[in-house]
Design a protein that fits this description.
The structure holds two protein chains of two kinds.
Chain A: H1 3-34, E1 44-45, E2 52-58, H2 63-78, E3 83-89, H3 98-110, H4 114-123, H5 125-128, H6 135-144, H7 149-156, H8 159-174, E4 182-185, E5 188-191, H9 193-204
Parallel strand pairs in A: 2-3
Antiparallel strand pairs in A: 1-3, 2-4, 4-5
Chain B: H1 2-23, H2 26-35, H3 41-64, H4 68-91, H5 110-129, H6 131-134
Helix pairs in contact in B: 1-3, 1-5, 2-3, 3-4, 4-5
Classes of the chains: A alpha+beta, B mainly alpha.
Chain lengths: 205, 145
């Protein structure tokens, strides 16, 4: 075969392969967009009329999530009414207390104390993340935010709580989320704090 | 035959790695790049969109054994880049827990990735050195005069 044929075959290979991959990519994106749940949960704060609708997929043991939470809190305080924030769970397997902390947070949510518990979990993350067993620390936080402890312990054993967390994680995975913190800001995905800052600042300009 | 099989395996590695990054939102790979603190934001965004395609297409050409000299050169350059990026993160003690090399498929720490990429660089160099044998089971052979 000639070199001219080789060039033609090269072009054919590249076009076919790129076409197939792009087809697969858009097919996956379409399929994922069908599975998105849009219900507002009690893990939401801010005005429903806010210009910026943000959903954060969080792992409570992720250091960047802790920094991100501080940034979002101060942003929302400096610009009241601009952001509505909804939290969803995305515990990573690489963080040993990620799932347990999410379960505790959801149990706090069941007693309508999600945000105080969320704030304290992230504030003290550097302490509990190094513990072999962080549950006594999570119990202590529960007492600090005035949770009813009997209700909490009953909730911790409720299999529905793990299902809630799994559902959030599956939703995140279906959107292509692979790490935390990941933010859906008005439907567009942004990963990490730098991307978060850049996107939120656009709304200020 | 072993050389051709090694070439094909490296090709598959790049195809899987590139495909995972292409299929998923590019923002995931952008976040990985940002963690290495090497590139400015605008360049990181370009790299996040383009690099997975470079990996993927290099993998395709390695798998097929097509334009093999060029594919092997690209492979050597890619491994050189990976080793440099990972090594600087280790030396600078950056808080990178997971290299992000294969997206969400496999989680490897930096030291493991450094060793793996170094071995693969050596294997690729041997593939270049034994290019005659590496060309077994390749499309390039169809174009031999």
């Amino acid at each position: 075969m000639t070199n001219n044929s080789k060039s033609k075959i090269t072009l054919l290979v590249v076009v076919v392969v790129v076409g197939l991959v792009l087809g697969l990519k858009y097919g996956v994106e379409y399929y994922r967009s069908k599975g998105t749940r849009t219900s507002i949960t009690t893990r939401t704060k801010g005005e429903a009329s806010a210009k910026i609708k943000m959903t954060e997929f969080i792992d409570f043991q992720c250091p960047a999530c802790a920094h991100g939470a501080k940034y979002i809190k101060s942003f929302m305080e400096e610009h009241p009414g601009l952001v509505q924030l909804q939290m969803k769970y995305y515990p990573l397997r690489t963080h040993r207390h990620a799932l347990t902390s999410a379960i505790y947070a959801e149990c706090a949510n069941q007693q309508e104390q999600f945000w105080p518990y969320h704030d304290k979990l992230l504030q003290h993350q550097s302490i509990w993340k190094t513990m072999n067993d962080a549950r006594p620390f999570f119990d202590k936080i529960a007492e600090e935010v005035d949770l009813e402890m009997e209700k909490l312990y009953s909730c911790l054993n409720d299999p529905n709580i793990s299902e809630i967390i799994s559902a959030d994680k599956e939703e995140g995975a279906s959107l292509g989320i692979r790490s935390t913190p990941s933010y859906l800001i008005n439907g567009k995905l942004h990963v990490g704090i730098r991307a978060l800052r850049t996107e939120l600042n656009k709304y200020l300009n | 035959m072993i050389w051709a099989l090694l070439r094909i395996l490296i090709g598959i590695l790049f195809i899987v790695s590139g495909l995972e990054k292409i299929i998923n939102p590019y923002q995931n790979f952008l976040y990985v790049i940002e963690n290495y603190e090497l590139l400015p934001v605008s360049l990181a965004e370009v790299v996040a969109r383009v690099f997975p395609w470079v990996e993927f297409i290099t993998g395709i050409f390695m798998l097929l054994g097509f334009w093999l000299k060029q594919a092997l050169t690209a492979t050597l350059i890619l491994f050189g880049i990976f080793i440099t990026v990972v090594l600087q993160a280790i030396v600078r003690k950056l808080p990178v827990v997971d290299c992000g090399c294969f997206g969400g498929l496999i989680h490897l720490n930096l030291q493991t990735v450094f060793l793996m990429d170094t071995c693969l660089l050596i294997i690729t160099s041997l593939l270049v050195y034994n290019i005659g044998k590496t060309r077994s089971l390749s499309l390039d052979k169809l174009f031999d005069n």
